[in-house]
Write a structure and sequence with these properties.
This protein has about 260 residues and is of the alpha+beta class. The protein has 5 helices and 14 strands. The strands form 3 sheets. The protein has a 7-stranded mixed sheet with strand order 1-2-5-9-8-7-6, sandwiched between helices. Strands 13-12-11-10-14 form a 5-stranded antiparallel sheet, with no helix packed on it. Helix 3 packs across helix 4. The protein is globular. The protein starts with 11 loop residues before the first helix and ends with a strand.
């Protein structure tokens, strides 16, 4: 029998009580996509630095490479946020990696027995199972970042066979309000360190499931390349052993 998860509702007060005033948090019960909602606000110049939107349920959740993110109501942590980094725009390409790093560190703080790694560029994995993912989309003045994490799904609720959730992996802390607060605080801290000039690549390497792996990468347009993942650049590129630098693509770890 599948385990039954406690599912406390998202609570703005419970989240904002533990985050800095930089973040302005809103919660909706149902929306098409928190990511599309913030992108629409950006079009109309009504989006402000530090805006955060969470949803109990998304009808058309948006993931990387035009994929969908699906979850039963109250089983996932689904949020989008907007930042205006005080750093040159050409450096924004590292933000997806920085966000993934922040999420992994934050989740580990609450669930230290659950080892979560990052598949480049920003998918969250436990072993060979996908726990969640991140999308980052630049707009005129900043970046809209979407985060989706499978929190309290049981095995019958998983969107695909190769997915997992914190609940299934035995994590003990599943309160999405607490997890959201931890993620926002960690992201804020790492953003400030990065903007001040600190090189955080060594932290990303430590949490990478891709580094040192033989990989196959499907590039936009359908072409595929293979190689050994040897490093990452400060611009967020995946560097293969033969020197090839990949800026975007879908990675498969080869065994």
């Amino acid at each position: 029998m599948s385990p039954v998860a406690p599912r406390p509702l998202l609570d703005v007060s419970a989240i904002t009580e533990h985050v800095s005033q930089y973040w302005r948090v809103s919660v909706v019960e149902v929306t098409g996509s928190t990511q599309l909602d913030l992108l629409e606000k950006a079009k109309h110049s009504t989006l402000k630095d530090g805006d955060v939107l969470l949803a109990e349920y998304q009808k058309s959740g948006k993931g990387r490479l035009d994929r969908t993110f699906e979850a039963a109501p109250s089983t996932a942590l689904m949020l989008s946020l907007y930042i205006e980094p005080k750093i040159e725009k050409h450096e924004w390409s590292f933000i997806p990696l920085l966000t993934g790093l922040s999420v992994v560190i934050a989740l580990h703080e609450r669930n230290q027995d659950t080892e979560i790694k990052l598949k480049w560029p920003n998918d969250l994995f436990v072993g060979e199972k996908k726990l969640g993912g991140i999308i980052a989309q630049a707009v005129e003045k900043g970046v809209v970042i979407g985060i989706g994490i499978n929190v309290a799904m049981n095995s019958d609720q998983l969107p695909v066979p190769h997915a997992t959730s914190l609940l299934i992996e035995g994590a003990k802390h599943l309160d999405r309000n607490v997890l959201c607060s931890e993620i926002l605080n960690t992201l804020d801290e790492l953003l400030q360190r990065w903007i001040s000039g600190e090189d955080l690549l060594h932290l990303y390497r430590e949490k990478s499931a891709t580094l040192g792996q033989d990989v196959e990468i499907e590039l936009p347009g359908g072409n595929r390349i293979t190689g050994l993942a040897s490093d990452f650049s400060r611009a967020g590129e995946l560097i293969l052993r033969d020197g090839t630098r990949v800026t975007v693509g879908d990675v498969i770890h080869l065994r």
